[in-house]
Prior knowledge:
The protein has helices at 29-40, 46-49, 55-60, 94-105, 125-138, 158-163, 180-183, 189-202, 220-232, 259-271, 289-307, and strands spanning 44-45, 65-68, 109-114, 143-147, 168-170, 207-214, 237-242, 276-279. By secondary structure, it is of the alpha/beta class. Strands 1-2-3-4-5-6-7-8 form an 8-stranded mixed sheet, sandwiched between helices. Strand 2, helix 4 and strand 3 form a beta-alpha-beta unit. The longest helix has 19 residues, at 289-307. It is globular, with a radius of gyration of 20 Å.
Amino acid sequence: MADLLNIPQPTDKKLPKPDWIRVRAPQSEGYKETRELMRANKLHTVCEEAACPNIGECWSQKHATMMILGDTCTRACAFCNIKTGVPNKVNADEPHDVALAVQKLGLRHVVLTSVDRDDLEDGGANHFAQCVEFIRTTSPETTIELLTPDFRRKDGNLEIVVKARPDVFNHNIETVPRLYQRIRPGARYFHSLNLLSKVKEQDPSIFTKSGIMVGLGETKEEVLQVMDDFRSANIDFITIGQYLQPTPRHAPVDRYVTPDEFRYYERVAKTKGFLMVSSSPLTRSSYHADADFAQMRDERNRRLAAENPQPANDNK
């Protein structure tokens, strides 16, 4: 059946990494300071848990994506390096600890994500909302981006997160529909798409964001269709990055997409009307999130001004 679906299967053959995907090991003092702060506050980061290649650069600038609700996921996606199992009890003090870390780092923009917590009745929605509330209290100037699970079979709990009014609601689609059964078996493509569409319906002021990985066996045509699906869901920001195999037990890399192809995707996405596009081999969901947020906000303001020009002042 897998051959009929044209889904690539695991193989012992490992493709050599091209030069454009290589990064230096983290060594800076800023990196060490960020790591020590996370340890002192007993916080997890997706940067470490998912073995992000940009951790050295981001942490040296005191940018970190904090991972709430523990470090153990209830799902087992074929691309993800976060451990799977039975999660521990939710730490009720975590929203306070996260807010304290944001304050100590002096973050202008913070990204919070989590493991999937299918074991919780609300999927972790109330915990996300509490984190937003604590950060707003202690760091009112900080903009907040949430990268959430899909809240599948958790009807009514998306609304809890939306009512907390994060500046950005991010949920990654991850791959094209054809590859979902192998790459993201616990999720459903159109459920995730609908989740993002509902955010816009409930609060149009919240920016929505989603991303996919390439190099898993998708075609260019499928990537372009995903772009169209994103626009139909009114998603503001699309990210496209190279999939990297975390360990031999994870899905293999089908190919390393060239920088030229990433630039092609960026050009096409811009013509489709996204407010913001990040497409490169090392693009990750929260890579350069603070600068990208500022650029996205400016672009929305520019478009709104163009749609509603101010009348000339005849009294001048």
